[in-house]
Write a structure and sequence with these properties.
Distance between the termini of chain B: 73 Å
CATH superfamily of the largest domain in chain B: Aldehyde oxidase/xanthine dehydrogenase, molybdopterin binding domain
CATH class of the largest domain in chain B: Alpha Beta
CATH architecture of the largest domain in chain A: Roll
Number of strands of chain A: 5
Distance between the termini of chain A: 43 Å
Largest interface: A-B, 50 and 58 residues
CATH topology of the largest domain in chain B: Aldehyde Oxidoreductase, domain 4
Number of helices of chain B: 16
Number of domains of chain A: 2
Structural class of chain B: alpha+beta
Largest sheet of chain A: 5 strands, mixed
Number of strands of chain B: 29
Oligomer: heterodimer
CATH topology of the largest domain in chain A: Ubiquitin-like (UB roll)
Shape of chain B: globular
């Protein structure tokens, strides 16, 4: 089927199979490899992107449902070599180790803090709870999230 | 110039952070090549069977399919096995399958969908055999024999199999009068323990891409911690006589934890690619395949007995550990060895009788996993000390303090402990002090509150001639490229190694670039990135290369000034002699006089660090010289919900004698991450097989790794710094260590407060609740 999706503010027309996931469109059609595939089952959160302002797991999101949807991936978060506050916070809080789960976390927080810059700590925890990280023990990721919120508020 | 002196010991940001937060860091599945075919495999689905026949003709005719093959269709036989210790494994099954995840057929097709469709059209006829998953049952006389050829496989002399059994390796360590271990004992305690099979669950699944070019050279990209082991294994397997004809490339790794060490899928992907010369063949495991078809970790059932005097002085230890190492033993051998001599923990025993068995079973094969044979023994000894303290009526902490190894004591291997090995008493007392900072609430209506602390020890397990080597070049602008075969798998090696180089050279760390991408054609030899040794071994190689660079600058200046080398001073920006000096930029390509003629050479050096005095185990006594140790301690405060059985970690304290912390934030990250893995093992993680011999824990829900909500309410990390004399700036290994203690310390805290003595993990919420209920009756 034919489909138009707006990805990182550009229109793309695709011919997709009904079974294709958004993740496979991003990675295989567009080589937007910043979005990672950790499990293909919606369990790990590494593939999280923002669709129409909401964080979704792209591996279990069917592309066919996304006609004219606006998708933001990690490639669309920073521009002209300037990092977004969330990305800066991940660096400063040492919330990155192997880095495989990192883009998913950043997109999750992007959606949350865009919608509600004053999100309560509990909401932030709830959002981060959807993701798995095997390296950091989570504490640095929480630190990064709170730091990012502070940066966004102060900017 | 002294500005840069302090970069060691500071938390500079990660060198790879920018790439990773922007999604531009490339991992194996992100690599794109022309003429790439996809590979998919058919796995047995039965745990132990003879392959009668495999029908592949229908699959061959499917659209997009380039090749379909089986072990038989390629005429593989006993001459096509590979390994590093015991050569007992083929790239795919030949005439028999030994675990349900074993690969029996391979499809190479234009697309993944086409490959999967073809896989569905392959029919296999098996003659099923009795299977066995329990390692103790597997050593019994009635057990089905998993490898009829056990004993006939090529193996290195150290690992001697027992033919006509499922035992591929038996290690027996004897210290002192090992036949009368408990002669001087006034009290003994013993128990059986189980540390189940587990999965590393790195968030990045394993992947590899292989291509044979038109000259017959092999190019392989892999998510591997061990490029040079791969080169050795592949050269041997494919009879490639010159290593210059193998190109192993390693991109960024999305976590490893040992699960990507040695080898996993690479021989098979290379074999597949050989059938379609010129094409790149790509194979990335699904999450289910990571569970059933890469390597597992742990899997120990064992018995331990301790003897002591009435005052608590330990006099002897006996332990027998059976490792269910799965269908193939090669990657398990050294784990069994390490488990054997390290199960005594950081305690002094005059007599030891320690046996460990590597046992074939019908699970996925078992290999390295963070801790490498140490967590199992640490679990047993610390649980048993708890029992001993109770029986003696002695304070738990006093019993440990009394028996920790002291300088001049010998460990199980007879090695003498020195002051410089680190201070376990300091680690332990600081752990307890840290716990005491927050009072533990008394039991209330809803919760039990428990506290415990344990000791830990780990030695890096490495091959006897393990080495790290680096190339270093100074560029014209005084930036420095350093090339190492050490793999950045998240631990932060790119950052820490740059700090070591910057401080040695007295130049800004931003001027140092460590290569992240490894290519065995360009990168010097590195044994493999395991055993927490990168900071230490590669760090030492870098210091050596940096020092040689400094000497070269001085040599260039000495040619200009005609002074003796020793009188010339280097400070990171210039070299000087009394009131004369030359800027480093004037010397970096050699010194050019005003008329153009040039003396000296560009600054270009190498550095090496080879493990010294490590020997192979003696076949009779089990004695040998491994590398040195890191001591530490871990403590916990937890609460147990009386109604639900839920265990909440309130405060988890880790104290390690790190020698010298190069980057505190990264070191702390190793601790918080390692502790969480240990907590997962204590409370959640276990590989389970069903009655058909198929694994049921094949996704990240059923195999529940810790989530954010499992995190301790508070983490404390304490680093003691007793310098390691041969470590870079005094540093010693710390990366695996935080994962060791959580199971024992958590179960000890549970026992202290509820009286319930668990001897196996995980203690899930349900299991805790059931035990509480049983206790009420």
């Amino acid at each position: 089927m034919e489909l138009t999706i707006i990805i990182n503010k550009k229109d793309y027309a695709f011919s997709v199979d009904p079974s294709d996931s958004l993740l496979s469109i991003l990675r295989e059609h567009l080589s937007l490899t910043g979005t990672k595939n950790g499990c293909s089952q919606g369990h790990c959160g590494a593939c999280t992107v923002v669709v129409n302002g909401k964080a979704v797991k792209s591996c279990i999101t069917k592309a066919k449902k996304l006609e004219n949807a606006e998708v933001l991936t990690i490639e669309g978060v920073s521009s002209n070599f300037i990092l977004h506050a969330i990305q800066e916070a991940f660096i400063e809080a040492t919330a990155v180790q192997c880095g495989f789960c990192t883009p998913g976390y950043i997109m999750e927080l992007y959606a949350l803090l865009q919608a509600d810059p004053d999100a309560e700590k509990e909401e932030i925890h709830k959002a981060l709870e959807k993701h798995l990280c095997r390296c950091t023990g989570y504490q640095p990721i929480i630190d990064a999230a709170l730091l990012a919120q502070e940066k966004i508020k102060n900017s | 110039m002294k500005l840069f002196n302090k970069v060691v010991g500071t938390s500079i940001p990660r060198a790879d952070a920018h790439e990773k937060v922007t999604g531009t860091a490339l991992y194996i599945d992100d690599l794109r090549f022309p003429r790439t075919l996809k590979m998919k495999v058919l796995r047995a689905g039965v745990p132990h069977a003879i392959i009668n026949s495999i029908e592949i003709s229908k699959a061959i005719d499917m659209p997009g399919v380039h090749k379909v093959f089986t072990g038989k269709s390629l005429n593989l036989d006993k001459n096509h096995l590979f390994g590093t210790c015991i050569f007992d494994q083929a790239p795919l099954a030949i005439d028999k399958v030994r675990h349900a995840g074993e690969i029996v057929a391979v499809v190479i097709a234009e697309t993944e969908k086409q490959a999967l469709a073809a896989i569905k059209n392959i029919d296999v006829d098996f003659k099923e055999l009795p299977f066995i998953l329990d390692p103790i049952e597997a050593v019994g006389k009635e057990a089905p024999l998993i490898h009829e050829q056990n004993g006939k496989y090529h193996h290195v002399p150290t690992f001697v199999p027992e033919p006509q059994t499922n035992i591929f390796y038996k290690y027996h360590l004897k210290k002192g009068d090992y036949e009368h271990v408990f002669q001087d004992a006034e009290i003994t305690v013993e128990d059986n323990f189980e540390y189940p099979l587990m999965n590393h669950a790195a968030i990045e699944p394993h992947g590899a891409i292989a291509q044979w070019d038109h000259t017959g050279e092999l190019h392989l990209w892999s998510s591997s911690q061990a490029p040079f082991v791969l080169r050795e294994v592949l050269a041997d397997y494919f009879k490639i006589k010159q290593m210059i004809k193998i190109h192993i490339h390693i991109p960024y790794l999305g976590g490893g934890f040992g699960g990507k060490s040695d080898y996993t899928i690479e021989p098979l992907v290379a074999l597949a690619a050989q059938l379609v010369p010129g094409y790149h063949v790509k194979f990335v495991l699904t999450r289910k395949e990571v569970f059933i078809g890469s390597v597992l970790g742990r899997g120990m059932k064992g018995h331990m007995k301790l003897g002591a005097k009435k005052d608590g002085t330990l006099v002897g230890i006996e332990a027998t550990q059976y490792f269910s190492d799965g269908a193939y033993g090669d990657t398990g051998c050294n784990v069994v060895l390490a488990a054997g001599h390290n199960c005594v923990g950081p305690y002094f025993f005059p007599k030891c009788n320690l046996k460990s068995f590597g046992v074939y079973t019908n699970s996925a094969p078992v290999g390295a996993f963070r801790g490498y044979g140490h967590p199992e023994g640490q679990f047993m000894i610390e649980r048993l000390l708890e029992k001993l303290a109770l029986k003696l009526g002695m304070e738990y902490d006093d019993l440990r303090m009394k028996n920790f190894l002291r300088p001049a004591d010998t460990n199980s291997l007879g090695q003498i402990i020195n002051e410089h090995n680190g201070d376990i008493r300091k680690c332990f007392t600081q752990t307890i002090t840290k716990l005491n900072e927050i009072p533990l609430p008394p039991e209330d209506e809803s919760f039990f509150y428990g506290r415990a602390a344990v000791g830990l020890i780990k030695s890096p397990v490495q091959t006897a001639n393990a080495s790290s080597n680096v190339f270093l070049k100074f560029n014209e602008d005084l930036t420095v490229n350093i090339s190492t075969g050490g793999v950045e798998l998240g631990q932060g090696s790119l950052t820490v190694l740059a700090q070591i180089a910057a401080q040695t050279l007295h130049i800004p760390v931003s001027n140092i670039r460590i290569n992240y991408e490894i290519n065995t054609q360009l990168t010097p030899y590195e044994w493999q990135t395991v055993a927490s040794m990168t900071t230490m071994r590669v760090g030492n190689a870098i210091i050596s290369a940096c020092e040689k660079s400094i000497t070269q600058f001085k040599q260039n200046a000495a040619l200009v000034w005609d002074y003796a080398l020793n009188d010339i001073v280097y400070d990171g920006t210039k070299v000087s002699y009394q009131d004369r000096f030359l800027d480093l930029k004037e010397l970096v390509l050699g010194y050019q006089y005003s008329d153009g003629h040039t003396v000296g050479n560009p600054i270009l050096t190498t550095g090496s660090s080879v493990v010294r005095n490590v020997t192979f185990p003696d076949l009779e006594t089990g004695q040998y010289q491994p590398y040195e140790w890191t001591f530490g301690s871990q403590g916990v405060d937890l609460k147990i919900n009386k109604k639900t059985g839920e265990i909440t970690i309130l405060h988890f304290v880790t104290a390690l004698d790190a020698g010298k912390v190069i980057n505190p934030a990264l070191a702390r990250g190793q601790v918080t991450g390692g502790v969480m893995q240990g907590i997962g093992q204590a409370l959640k993680e276990k590989i389970v097989y069903d009655e058909s011999g198929n694994m049921t824990t094949t996704n990240l829900r059923r195999y529940a790794i810790p989530r954010l909500s499992d995190m301790p309410e508070k983490f404390s990390c304490i680093f003691i710094e007793t310098p390691q004399p041969d470590g870079p700036f005094g540093a010693r290994p710390i990366a695996e260590h935080p994962a060791l203690g959580p199971p024992s310390v958590i179960l000890n805290a549970i026992q202290r407060v509820t009286g319930i003595s668990f001897t196996s993990i995980p203690v899930t919420k349900e299991r805790m609740l059931n035990a509480l209920k049983a206790g009420e009756k």
